[in-house]
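Budget justification note: compute hours in this period were largely spent on complex prediction jobs such as the one shown. Inputs:
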Amino acid sequence: MSPRRALAPLLGLVALAACLRDPPLAWPPRAPGSQRGGVLRLAAPDDVPTLDPALGYDSRSWTYEQHLFETLVTYDDQSRLVPELAEGWSIADDGRTYRFRLHAGVTFSDGTPLTAADAVGSLERVLDPRTRSQGAEYYREIVGAADYVEGRAPHVAGLTAPDATTLAIVLREPDPLFLHKMALLFAAVVPAEYARRLGDDFTDRPIGSGPFLLREWRRGERLVLARNPRYRRADRPFLDGIVEQSGVNGELAWLKFLNDEIDVSGIPPADFPSVRRATDVERPGRLVSGLTLVTNYLGFNCRMPPFEDRRVRQALNYAVNKEGLIALLNGRGTVAQGIVPPGMPGYASAATGYPYDRERARALLREAGQGAGFATELWTQSSDLDLKMSQKVQHDLAAVGVTMEIRQVAWSSFLEAIRRPNTVPLFDLAWSADFPDPSNFLDVLFRSSRVDANNHTFYANPTFDGLLTRAERLRDPAARTLAYAEAERLLVDDAPVIFLYHPIAYVMTQRRVHGYAIHPLLPSRFTDVWLAPEPTGAQGTSAGS
Amino acid sequence: MIPGTRHGLLGVGLAMGALLVAIAIMGPALAPYDPTAPVAPRLAEPSPPGAPFWLGTDDLGRDVLSRLLHGARISLLVGLVAMVVTMTIGTAIGLTAGYFGGVVDVLLMRLTDVMLAFPGLLLAVALVAVMRPSVWTIFVVIGLVSWTGVARVVRSEALSLRERDFVLAARALGASHARIVARHVLPNVAPTLVAIAALSTSGTILLDAGLSFLGIGVPPPTPTWGRMIQEASAYYRVAPWLMAFPGLAVLYAVLAFNLVAYGLADRGTSAR
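Corresponding output:
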C-alpha cells in the first residue's frame, strides 16, 4: 500500500439500467435488542479500483477485499501477526520451510469447500505473469517460483498441499518477513479454479471466505456487501451489510453525515477546530482517532547539487517548522524525529530529529558555502492540502534564504518523475507501511540498491547498507531492533529527507456505531462493528438508495 | 438608452479604474502585513474580519487585506499586459484579413474560427499544462486564447474602410499597403480598439482569476485573487468572508473596465 493516494479508479461503463429507479435493497428484519443486524452506510469520492486481491494495491481496494477474503495470517489491533484462515503454523529450524494448518470445514461464500489446494492455486495465480499482479514480487523467493513464472514448470515446486488442510511453503532463503507477506491481501485465498476461469472478470464476481460477500457493485455509483452466511465464525459479523456510495467528496460526506445519511465520515479541515474543541456531548457524533504507520517527508535528490552536501540537507531540516505544518493540519499529526513511525510494534527508535532552528540552518548553509542562499523546486501533488503545506514550507525556507518554487504535478507523472535521476530536486511524499517492520521504511526507502524501486532520494551510504544487511540477518528480535535503530540514527544524521510528521487519522461515526477503529496498518475493519438498535427498528431497510 | 446615462457610466468606470490603478501602484505600501507571512496567532483557523486584521486572515494565517492589495497589482498587470498581447495579435490578424481580403481573409478567418471552436478556458488550461506556470506564461496564454474576438471586429471595420474614398485616394496616389494600413485604416479603427481593449482587460482579469482558481495561474507565493478564492473554497461554510473579499475584488475590477468599455463604445456610436 505504498502510494498514499488510491490508484485511479477503473472507469466502468455505467449500465443503461442505472437510469431506472432501483428497488430499495431489502435487509433482514432486526431482532430487538440485538447487536446483530443493521447496515453500515459509507461514502467515498472515488469508486473502488478493484476487488480482485491479486490486483488491488491501494487502501480503497483493500478496504473491501479484506472483508470478502481471508488470508492465512493477519494482524490484530496492535499490528501483531495472528492466525486467520490458518489455525496455526510452524517454521522449520532452517527458517525456510513453513507449514500452515488451515481450519477444517471452511467453505467459500458459494458453498464450495476451501482447501489447501486453493491456497496453492491463489499464490500461483498471483505469480502467474498473465495475472499482472504487483504482488508477485513478494512470492518470487518460493522455491520453483522462477521456473513457474518463466513457464518451465506447470506448478511452483515449493508450494504444496500435502492434504486438504495443510499448506507447505519452502523458500530459497530464510526470510524474517515472510509471514508478513502472507498477511498481505495478495496472499488471500480465492477459489483457485473459479478465479482462473473468470480471469479479469473475477473482480466483478469475487467469491471468498470473508465475513461479507459482494451483493451489488455499480461502478461509480454504489458498492453493497452483505453478510456471508457461510462465514467461518458464527458470531461475526454483526452487520447485515455495508453500503458505500461513490462520488461523494469529503465536504459532501460531512454534510451527509450531519444529516444522518451516512454513518462514518472524515472531518473537513474547516470544521475540525470546532469539532476538536467541542465536548463529547456537543459533537455531532463519536470522534475516533488513531496513529497510523505513515511518515510524511520531503525527499531530497541526494545527487543533485546543492543537496549532495549533507550540511545543506541538515540545514533545511532545521529550517522547516514542523509544528507549524501540524498546526495547518489542525494538529492531526506528531512531529517526525526519524523515518520509522512511533507505534511500530517491537521497535524503539533512538532518532532525535531536527528541532526548528533558523540560526543553525543559516550557520550550516554558510558552512556549506550556501550562505547567500539558492533556488530550488519542490514537486508536489495537486491537492489543496499539499499546496498549502508547500506554501508554508516555501515561507520557512525563504527565511533562511532558500527560494523554493512549487511545482504541482499529477500523481502518475509525479511518481514517474521522482524515479528519474537528476530530475526532481525536492519532492513531497509519504510512505505508508506495508508490514509492521522497521525495514519497511529503512530498507525499502533508503538502501542504495533500491534506487530503481522506492529509493527516490538516490541516497547511497555503504555504512548504512552494511547496518541493514547486519540487521536483516539477525534472528533475535531485540538485537534486530537495536541494529535497525542504529541504522536509523545514521540515516537521520545524513538527512536524505526532511522529516516532517506522522499523521493521526480522525473520523466521526454516528453514536449508534460501535467497534469502529482506526487500524495503524490496514483500512478500518467492519467485522467487529455493530450498531446500537434503533428504538423503532426501522433502521437500514432502504439504506443507500 | 439616454446617451447621457452612458456617458455617466464612462465617468464612473474611469473613476473606479483609476482607484484600482492607484491601489495596484501603492498597494504593497498600503498593505499592513507581509502577504505571505503567517501573522495570525493560529493556523488552520481563519479569523473573522476585525482589528487588527480588517478583512480577517486565511487558514495559513495570512492577512487577507494585505493579500488583496498585493493581488491587485498582479491582477491588473496580468489584465493589462495580456490585453496588450491580445490586442496586438487580434489587430494584426484582423487588419491583414480585412484590408487584403480574398484568400488571405479566408485563411485568417478560418484560423480564427478554428481557435474560436476551442473553449477558451480549456485551451488556456492545455497551454499552461504544456508551458511552465509563471507570470509570463499567463500573459502569453491569455493573449493566445483571446485574440479571436478582437480579430473579427477589427477585420469587419477594415473591410468597410478599405472601400472608403480616402483609402482609394491614397492607393491611387501610390501609397504602400503598410502606409495605408498604418496612416489611414488603423487610426479609423482606433476608437473601436479602445473600447475593445477596455472590454478585453476585464475579460483577461476574469480569465486570469479562472486560471488561478484552477490552480494553474501565477504560482505561489504571489498572491492572486483567483487563488485566494480557490484556497478559501474549503472554508466557505465556516469562513465565507475568505471567499467573498477576493470575489468582490474581481467583480469590482471587471465592472470598472466594462463600464469604461460601454461608455467608450457608446461615445463612439453617438459621435458617428
